[in-house]
Every structure is written in C-alpha cells, then in structure tokens.
Specification:
With about 110 residues, this protein is mainly α. It is built from six helices and no strands.
C-alpha cells in the first residue's frame, strides 16, 4: 500500500483534533477512491506484463538493458519492433532516458 494511502487510512481511523468530522469524512472518501485507482493501476500493470511476455518483439525489446515491460509495450506501440537498439536510438520519436544504459552499450548518441 502506498504511503499516502496508509497515512489517509491512519488519519481517518484515528481522527485528528485539528480536522472537523466533515473533513475526516471527505478524506475517508478520497482514500477509498485512491485505493480503487491503485488497484486499477496494479491490474493494468499485470496486463501489460502478460502482453509483453507473450509477444516475441516485446520480449526481444526487454533484452535491452533498462527496458521493462511497460517501456517495451510503449516502444513497440509507438515505433514498431526495431531490430536493434541502434534502430531504436535512430528513431526521432523515441528519446532514450538519461538513466538508461542504451547509449553506453550501443554507442548511439542522444
């Protein structure tokens, strides 16, 4: 459970002398909505991982250092399969994050 969700749960369960009853009710409702949103995000993440593992192009993309299922899915959707990391770096619609190892491994420039 993310830290904000935990803190909202604690605050609404224990109460707070600085917050009115109405404010605590509003926070409780917001905490419930946040939990639903977090659950939906987690479910979508599971779907993305399953799609990436089932697709040969995405699995190949994940062989590149720093590329995980969500990134592989986005890259394949945006620019196609690309046969090498250099092809990906050469595509102007894809910007390699600075923290990623692709430029160092392939020698391509950002």
């Amino acid at each position: 459970m993310p830290r904000l969700s935990k803190e909202l749960a604690r605050l609404t369960a224990e109460g707070n002398e600085d917050l009115s009853r109405r404010m605590l009710m509003l926070l409780s409702g917001m905490a419930s909505e946040l939990n639903v949103t977090n659950d939906r995000i987690a479910a979508i993440g599971v779907e993305i991982k399953a799609l990436a593992k089932a697709d040969a192009d995405m699995r190949r993309m994940m062989d590149i250092p720093c590329v995980r299922p969500t990134s592989a899915t986005a890259v394949v959707a945006a620019i196609g399969t690309g046969s090498t990391a250099i092809d990906i770096c050469a595509n102007p619609s894809f910007t390699v994050p600075e923290r990623c190892c692709i430029p160092r491994v392939t020698g391509c420039r950002q």
